Amino acid sequence: MNGINQPILVLSEDVLRQTGKDAQKANITAAVSVSEMIRSTLGPKGMDKMLVDSTGDITITNDGVTILDEMEINHPAAKMIREVAKTQEQEVGDGTTTAVVLAGQLLKKAGELLDQGIHRTTIVKGYRLATNKAIELLKELGQKISLEDEEELKKIALTAMTGKGIESSKQKLSEIAVKAIKCIAHEEDGKIVINPDDIQIEKKQGGSVSDTELIEGIVVDKEVVNPAMPKLVKNAKIALINAALEIKSTETDAKISITDPEKMQAFAEQESKMLKNLADKIKNSGANVVFCQKGIDDLVQYYLAKYGILGVRRIKESDMEKLSKATGARIVSNIEEISKEDLGEAGIVQEKKIGEDKMVFVRECKEPKAVSILVRGGTEHVVDEAKRAMDDAVLGISSTLELSSYVYGGGAIEIELARKLRDYAASIGGKEQLAINAFAESLDIIPRTLAESAGKDAIELLVAAKSEHENGNVGYGINVNEGKIDDMEKLGVVEPTKIKFQAISSATDVAEMILRIDDVITAGKSTSTTTPPGGGMGGGEY
Length: 542
Prior knowledge:
The protein contains 17 helices and 23 strands. It has helices spanning 20-39, 64-70, 76-91, 96-115, 120-141, 150-161, 170-184, 261-285, 298-306, 317-327, 380-403, 412-428, 432-443, 445-453, 458-470, 488-491, 497-516, and strands at residues 9-11, 16-19, 49-52, 58-61, 143-144, 186-188, 191-193, 199-205, 213-215, 218-220, 232-241, 289-292, 310-312, 331-332, 344-354, 357-363, 371-377, 405-408, 476-479, 484-487, 494-496, 519-522, 526-528.
């Protein structure tokens, strides 16, 4: 205009662009469809999904994050829903399906409000108010728990494992999970500190799920390095070495010229002497078991076997750290300085054949700060699902103790939160109360899905449960096994408060993020056709 060249940024022809309501509807539809796909897996009566990858490998599970990981999701909004499950898994370890279903329902309700002409900013503001209030309410409604409440902790583990396909053995597995947590828990500044990484969960096909055992020590997925070494050592004195038990090669290129056969013999003898010296150092320290992070020379192996020392090599760094925590041994970097004080202790170190593989068990450690759980199962699918169940149980207990709080499951906490949020909405007024009410209705999806999975009339059960809550019975939820409402406190159906904190927070975050998007541009690059004299600022498509 007026002879001035305006900068024009043109999108290339292969660009696909959706704007305004079209973009919002497409994003909401994609996110809701992923959520609906996962929804049927919720709860103990949830259905399983069979996932077949491009190579024909099959995974059968009802674990939300596993399903979403295996699925090849292309739509960007649907990928954002997958991130909700991953965050939930990393932060808490359970509740992935709850988080995804809630995120989908929040978006579905937001879509209905958008159709009614409510602006997305109002919806986002209402959802944020509802989230803050829900977290405040969770703090009030949570029941206190401590490390000494073993029975309550078992209930947490049982709830986490319910519906994972290991119903017949879950009582035993829950006891193992609680014992493992009690071994590694310690107090710092008056707070219980638990690092779930200190519990090593190994899986081996063979036997049945009921053969799963807790080892008060560590299982190392390696075999004894030399067949002449002992396969069983009692009252083990354990050396942990992260240096190679071999002759070091020089850092610079070196060439040795030998002109005399006698010198060759002397060279070989000196090398043997040095290797024997390494074995002698270990023997003199009093060690009868050695775990080496690096290699062990054949000659060192020979001498260790001669001295009756059990040796294992090429141990992972993470396993070395766990061995140190379990046995009290210090990891030694310089073999020259190894002493009696560096050694750890264990009642038994033994090589055993488990399934088709040999493993080394370090058992009967005194006050171990790291332990192992060896999960067994008759088939690969069973042992995988049992390991997932054990992971959920361990993380569920540690999440509960992190906040020292739990809530009632079976949809009871969601029904109570929804009831209180409706009261809160009335006090807020304005259009935001519509969004807060939509948030409350979204929470109802959890008990409704549980009722549907029991094969019952969801509305009838939901109305009956809400009636109990109005009368002050806040523990009432859906008993999916009998298809009726029941007192979750009496049934022992309890969950970590942290699961609900995280699920509500991350579901709201992703719903807000998707609602704020009003333009989706796919592929292609912007190209400037003209540039104004003297440069100047350009505009662009977003």
